[in-house]
Amino acid sequence: MKLHLLCKRYYTNKDLIQERFGRLYHLPTQIQRLGCDVKVTALDYRHPMAERHVLEEVIFKTLPATPLQLASSLRQIHGVFRSDSPDIVVASGDSHIGFLGLQLAHILGAPFVFDVYDYYPAFSGNCIPGMRMLFRKAVKGSALVLCASNPLMERLASLNSARLLIENGVDRQLFVPMDQMEARKNLSIGLGMPVIGYFGSIQPARGPLLIEACRLLRAVMPTLTLLLAGTVSRVPIAEPWIRYFGQLPQEAIPELIAACNLVTIPYADDEFNAMSSACKIAEYLSCRRPVVATDIAGHRQLFGAVPQSLCQPDPLDMANAIRRQLFQPQVAPFPENLKWEKIAHTLIDALTELTNTKSDNEY
Fold it and tell me: Cα-atom radius of gyration of the chain, to the nearest Å?
């Protein structure tokens, strides 16, 4: 079975090629190991030169999609897919990419699979007129829609009944439990103070809840320290008790997690967050750290065995949950279904069924 994935090079503030991050890297490489012939074409909005990389036997090609090169890039994409002639076309990353993948699949007479890892209509770029229509057309026209969370599955049910839950997994070779004392020494963090962490995008809907909760707790825990890493947008973090490490490579995150007493998912309850599937949840659980997460999206399913991990998206309730987890910590078990290997088996079974159905229909 030949599969060609059309996606974007930069997503969730990571570089698919250099950082080998997330589902757009791990799903292709994992199903390649299972016997699928996989190629990836990644649109690059930042660089004017095309690149070719072979990573774990998968060919990753980048095509520049800067405004000046967009027209020629569309012609190149068409040529690349025609030359490859895949059995299945998959698209992921945004509404217009999904629609483009659908058109390519129609031209090639191949089944189309749309990977929806976030609710793309909530992306800022989707305010452009017509983008939401492209999203609906891509979802409706898909032979199969991959959804990263159960809330996404429910949201898209009216557009397409052929949906499959493909969650965000974790690299369990990288995200492993580490010694807290050693991590704190390496990071110059006091050994006795309570340390709370959040590592991801810091913006108005992801971060301020935690900062306010920690400010409340510092009234009774004056040594409490908050560790942050990731991109910051429109959130003030200039506090002496906040240590901000900037935007770090994935390899640096496990040590930060290990240094914390607990780690957090401080998401507000908005349209985007409510359907998200945060990669960091699997990372936290793989590192065996206590977690406090707002009770939105599919978090209740992940933390059902440890309900004290959940809180309302409110600073006071989050402060109370952090206090509970500091004094009586409970660690949620790591769900085996969040291993990339398990996720890949689920995906390739569904893709094989698609190709078999197409063959039966042709016959």
Answer: 21
Residue 31 and residue 238: Cα distance in Å, rounded?
A: 44
Tokens of 120: 């793309």
3-class DSSP assignment, residue 198: strand
Both tokens of residue 358? 């197409």
To which H or E segment does residue 52 belong?
strand 51-55
* Residue-by-residue pLDDT tens, the chain, 363 positions: 999 999 999 998 899 999 998 999 999 999 999 999 999 999 999 888 899 999 999 999 999 987 667 667 788 999 999 999 999 999 999 999 999 999 999 999 999 999 999 999 999 888 889 999 999 999 999 999 999 999 999 999 999 999 999 999 999 999 999 999 999 999 999 999 999 999 999 999 999 999 999 999 999 999 999 999 999 999 999 999 999 999 999 999 999 999 999 999 999 999 899 998 888 999 999 999 999 999 998 888 889 889 999 999 999 999 999 999 999 999 999 999 999 999 999 999 999 999 887 656 665
For residue 227, what are the β-bridge partners? Answer: 197, 243
Taken in order 301, 305, 307, 308, the sign of the CA dihedral is negative
Name all contacts of 50-56 with Cβ < 8 Å and 24+ positions apart. Answer: 50/76, 51/17, 53/17, 55/17, 55/20, 55/25, 55/29, 56/29, 56/32
Of 230, 234, 259, the closest CA to residue 246 belongs to 230
Check if the beta carbon of residue 78 is closer than 8 Å to that of residue 100.
Answer: no
Predicted TM-score (pTM) of this structure = 0.93
- DSSP letters spanning 218-278: TTT-TT-EEEEES-B-S-----TTEEE--S--GGGHHHHHHH-SEEEE-B--SHHHHT---
CA 339, 345, 348, 354 torsion: positive or negative? negative
